[in-house]
Amino acid sequence: MNFDLNKKTLREVNQYLQNIDRKKNTRKFEILNPQGQHAICAGLKDDIDVTIKGHTGYYCAGMNQKANVTIHGNVGTGVAENMMSGKIIVKGNASQSAGATGHGGALIIEGDASSRCGISMKGIDIIVKGSVGHMSAFMAQKGNLVIMGDADADLGDSIYEAKIFVKGKVKSLGADCIEKKMDKKNIDELTKLFKKLNISADPKKFKRYGSSRNLYNFKIDNVGAY
Amino acid sequence: MCGIVGIYLKTKKYEKHLGKFLSGMLDGMATRGPDSAGFAIYTKENKNIFKYSICLNNLKETNFKKKLSKFIKKIKLTSYADHVVLETSEKPTKIIDLLKKEVPEVSLVGYGKSINIFKQTGNPKDVVKKFKLSSFSGTHGIGHTRMATESAITTQGSHPYSTSEDECLVHNGSLSNHNNVRRSLIKDGQNFNSENDTEVAAGYISNQISKGKGLETTLKNSLKDLDGFYTFIAGTKDGFALLRDEIACKPAVVAETKDYVAVASEFQAMAHLPNVNTAKIFEPKPGVVYHW
């Protein structure tokens, strides 16, 4: 089923996709002429496949549950923000705050992601085939951020328990983020993730980064400072 | 919020459509800035003639012409909504002084050999219609849609700000040290007409350029001297430059084809441009000066 955003309003299209009639059994949808509009496919909650042909604006596929959304183009700020489950694939580049606060599911960006990718992520898996901008995984709490290219300055600043894997170069690490040992357990985890998401890459070529746990754990020695 | 746009034509193919393109871009950014809009269109330089873009405020054009004709012999005025463009061979020093003394009720929006610059309060969709922006041709142009934050919704508070010949600036963001910078620039002889932070940034750029620094060096220096959030597009008669501060909270996206380079706060402002779907689209990196 096709929707042309030159002919239908975004609200009509989103409302249709958010309230799928299960009896009709249509599960595949295509959106044409997105023209950079904001919040396309936000709030989907059914197991459907949506293909968007073109560039989208802010918060594309935000708050997603169960749906698979593929964007043949670039996406604006906050793609898949706060998503719960499902899979979002971006064929082009993503703007800042991709996958922000995501709780679950997977976000795959085939191009580059700009600054603050995975900011405050809470369990989502984010795979970036290109590079990420500065302050990626800022305050990231849970989940995996896998970067096949390079990471710009201050990667993982103030990170909690999310894991970062980088294949390329890291310009600099943010406060309390350190390189960690890539042991067998981590390699197995990454192998499993790649298999699940159908990604061909060698987990052994990645370095792992995470929290040194000095910033978010209270130390009794510092009590005088409060 | 605020929206900024810019388009630079690499070839002559679309020169007649420049106004139409820029108009569509401002229209697309109306959601980011519904309070006022403004734009600068650059045309081919006329070596002997200066163009002065003047907002008449409440003065009638006939009265303005009458007042001016006492001092200037040949006057060519073209009217655009509540603005006029005065074309004359008289030098800026004379005209600026003359306007200040003899017709203080009008405001000079900008001047130069190439620039036409207009701004007005109201929704950008209406502003572009009032000035018939679609009918303009030119080589490059920049524009702004404003959501007022730190100073009032007035024509004087609208962008672009032009503080020197053929220079202008649009800005998305806010500067936190503009009062300090303004004070030191005033000491250095720079004039300001509003309380607006962007005018300070424009004045800063003009001041540095007047000291012989290039636009690129000037913008690089601004990373150190101007504190705040910003994406700037600075126009000159040859093209424009783009800079985002190093935190880069304020958005920008660039689309480049063989015929043009377009910059906007959001992609939706460029969705109407020809061949944009096959353009090279990228997000400018923080702290890097891009120049076309």
Structure description:
The complex is a heterodimer of chains A (226) and B (292). Helix content of chain A is 10%, strand content 23%. The N and C termini of chain A lie far apart (60 Å). The relative contact order of chain A is 0.09. In chain A, helix 1 (10-18) links the parallel strand 1 and strand 2 (28-32). Chain A has one domain (2-216): 3 Solenoid (Pectate Lyase C-like). Chain A has helices at residues 10-18, 184-196; strands spanning 2-4, 28-32, 49-53, 68-72, 87-90, 106-109, 122-128, 142-147, 163-166, 177-180, 207-211. With 226 residues, chain A is mainly beta. In chain B, helix 5 (178-187) packs parallel to helix 6 (197-210) and helix 6 (197-210) crosses helix 7 (215-225). By secondary structure, chain B is of the alpha+beta class. Chain B is built from 7 helices and 16 strands. Chain B folds into 2 domains: 3-39 and 123-291, Glutamine Phosphoribosylpyrophosphate, subunit 1, domain 1 (4-Layer Sandwich); 46-113, Alpha-Beta Plaits (2-Layer Sandwich). Chain B is globular and about 55 Å long. Chains A and B meet through loops of A and loops of B.
